[in-house]
């Protein structure tokens, strides 16, 4: 604005002192009034916050499923166990010692030594051979099963190289591709959840923005009047921002309620299904942090939608 | 108090509502602004309320250059004015009390003060018993008086009124003019746009006359009371 105007001119229109109490009073009034206005037209306001809720529900559901998968991923990673087949001339004592040495390494979670006899016994058991097969000699080698800690593909490959060089080791078996695939799949799912959240956040932004725009339009005459009475832009914006805040909060809470309802009805079926695999079903609901994050996101996005609508349309309500 | 210096207002499309208007109104003065409809009365008032900006020239009120004010400063500037509109401009879904209290809410007055001052203002216009009514339940004259109560509730430095007696009967018009005169007596500057020449003639105040956007009466004269 004009830079050269006399100082006195500038001072005169400023509020004499900042009236914190009056300001807080108006915030409280706007907060209360906008909540009441939502209650007064429950159907039309419900339409808005239900749409917000559904838009939030979708990515949250994906997120929860992903969390459930993640919590199982450690169990599945065991599919990536490394089996070291030892040479036949390795004594059992040195085999056990090697297993202990490997356990001491940071890259390896735990190991299990399987002697030739154990291997033979479990082989027979698994095949349920009623000892019809009699061999003069046990053809199975002793082995060490090593479960690596979760680590990058490169680290895992380095570990394998090291293991292959051990003199006692004859052969190594590992399903690296499976681990790789699992990690990539989880990565893909994570970025899809992120993308979906972004897209649907924009939807929430537009929904709230449009609702606030309609609200501004319907109260245009009122806003023009109070502007002529000396209301600042901030004063005019306040009730609309609170409206946005309530939409966000209600939408967030509704999303959470729907999510909980879905979780409860699914948990039982999931338990039953995974139970047939002997697995424990993970909990599929939001913890306190995730719930607050959901509500906070909803409120912030809604406020942003309201603010953008105000920024675009508040000038239309200047008195004419 | 109100200074116009060579003020012109041209709207988009070339229509010139005011051309080179100059006058000034002293603090505490009571001035009528008259002229046919379309003569520029409303435009002139809009320039004073900073609703419109002049195309050229300068408007100063209480020493402030209006065109140098930013949006926030305009809001604070308007709090010093009491504006009465021809069409009342009331908030239709609020009570009479809330309507009159708006200016006090906007400046964040304490609720206790608000009540006292709103009651005083409603008492002045004789509507104390109707504070809980909605504007729609009132007659045109009563709505106009609500508008006046709202304009004076903050004891403004300047009262601006656009046809405040437009559709009131003569007795009521006189009452309302007396009310403005009372405020003028305690030092408030009053500028009233009206084409009710009979009423203007009876009151001995300075008259500014506009015709097709130009000031035709002596802008610095002291008495135009018999003009008409």
TrEMBL record, chain A:
It comes from Reinekea blandensis MED297. This is Cell division protein FtsX. InterPro entries: ABC3_permease_C, FtsX, FtsX_ECD, FtsX_proteobact-type. It holds the Pfam family FtsX. Residues 195-304 form the ABC3 transporter permease C-terminal domain. One of its GO terms (cellular component) is cell division site. Forms a membrane-associated complex with FtsE. Part of the ABC transporter FtsEX involved in cellular division. It is found in: Cell inner membrane.
TrEMBL record, chain B:
Pfam families: ABC_tran. One of its GO terms (molecular function) is ATP binding. SMART domains: AAA. GO terms for cellular component: plasma membrane. Its main location: membrane. InterPro entries: AAA+_ATPase, ABC_transporter-like_ATP-bd, ABC_transporter-like_CS, ABC_transpr_LolD-like, Cell_div_FtsE, P-loop_NTPase. GO terms for biological process: cell division. Belongs to the ABC transporter superfamily. Part of the ABC transporter FtsEX involved in cellular division. Important for assembly or stability of the septal ring. Homodimer. Forms a membrane-associated complex with FtsX. NCBIfam families: FtsE (TIGR02673). This is Cell division ATP-binding protein FtsE. It comes from Reinekea blandensis MED297. The lineage of its organism: Bacteria, Pseudomonadati, Pseudomonadota, Gammaproteobacteria, Oceanospirillales.
């Amino acid at each position: 604005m004009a830079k050269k105007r006399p100082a006195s001119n500038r001072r005169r229109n400023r509020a004499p002192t900042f009236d914190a109490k009056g300001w807080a009073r108006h915030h409280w009034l706007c907060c209360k009034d906008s909540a009441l206005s939502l209650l007064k037209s429950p159907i039309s306001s419900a339409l808005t916050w239900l749409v917000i809720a559904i838009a939030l529900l979708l990515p949250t559901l994906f997120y929860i499923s992903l969390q459930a998968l993640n919590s199982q991923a450690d169990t599945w990673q065991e599919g990536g166990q490394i089996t070291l087949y030892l040479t036949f001339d390795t004594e059992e004592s040195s085999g056990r010692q090697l297993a202990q040495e490997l356990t001491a390494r940071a890259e390896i979670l735990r190991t299990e030594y399987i002697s030739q006899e154990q291997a033979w016994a479990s082989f027979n058991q698994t095949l349920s051979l009623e000892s019809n097969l009699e061999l003069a000699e046990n053809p199975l080698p002793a082995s060490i099963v090593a479960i690596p800690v979760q680590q990058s593909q490169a680290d895992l490959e380095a570990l394998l190289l090291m293991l292959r060089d051990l003199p006692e080791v004859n052969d190594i078996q590992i399903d690296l591709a499976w681990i790789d695939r699992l990690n990539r799949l989880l990565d893909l799912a994570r970025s899809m959840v992120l993308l979906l959240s972004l897209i649907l956040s924009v939807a929430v932004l537009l929904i709230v923005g449009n609702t606030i725009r309609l609200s501004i339009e319907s109260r245009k005459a009122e806003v023009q009047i109070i502007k002529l009475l000396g209301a600042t832009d901030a004063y005019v914006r306040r009730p609309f921002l609170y409206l946005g805040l309530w939409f966000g909060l209600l939408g967030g809470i509704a999303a959470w309620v729907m999510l909980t309802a879905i979780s409860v009805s699914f948990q039982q079926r999931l338990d039953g299904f995974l139970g047939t695999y002997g697995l424990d079903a993970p909990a599929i609901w939001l913890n306190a942090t995730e719930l607050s994050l959901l509500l906070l996101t909803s409120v912030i996005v809604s406020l942003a939608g309201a603010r953008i609508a105000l920024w675009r349309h508040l000038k239309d309500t200047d008195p004419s | 108090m109100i200074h116009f210096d060579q003020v012109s207002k041209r709207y988009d499309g070339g229509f010139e509502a005011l051309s080179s208007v100059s006058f000034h109104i002293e603090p505490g003065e009571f001035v009528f602004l008259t002229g046919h409809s379309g003569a520029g009365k409303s435009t002139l008032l809009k320039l004073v309320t900073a609703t419109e900006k002049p195309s050229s020239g300068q408007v100063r009120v209480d020493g402030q250059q209006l065109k140098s004010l930013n949006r926030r400063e305009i809001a604070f500037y308007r709090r010093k004015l009491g504006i009465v509109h021809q069409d009342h401009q009331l908030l239709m879904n609020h009570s009479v009390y809330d309507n009159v209290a708006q200016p006090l809410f906007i400046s964040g007055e304490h609720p206790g003060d608000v009540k006292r001052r709103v009651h005083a203002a409603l008492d002045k216009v004789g509507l104390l018993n109707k504070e809980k009514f909605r504007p729609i339940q009132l007659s045109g004259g009563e709505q106009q008086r609500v508008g006046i109560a709202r304009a004076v509730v903050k004891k403004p430095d300047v009262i601006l009124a656009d046809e405040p007696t437009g559709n009131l009967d003569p007795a009521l018009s006189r009452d309302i003019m007396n009310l403005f005169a009372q405020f003028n007596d305690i030092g408030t500057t009053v500028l009233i746009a009206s084409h009710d020449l009979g009423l203007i003639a009876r009151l001995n105040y300075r008259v500014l006359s506009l015709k097709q956007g130009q000031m035709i009466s002596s802008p610095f004269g002291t008495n135009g009371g018999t003009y008409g």
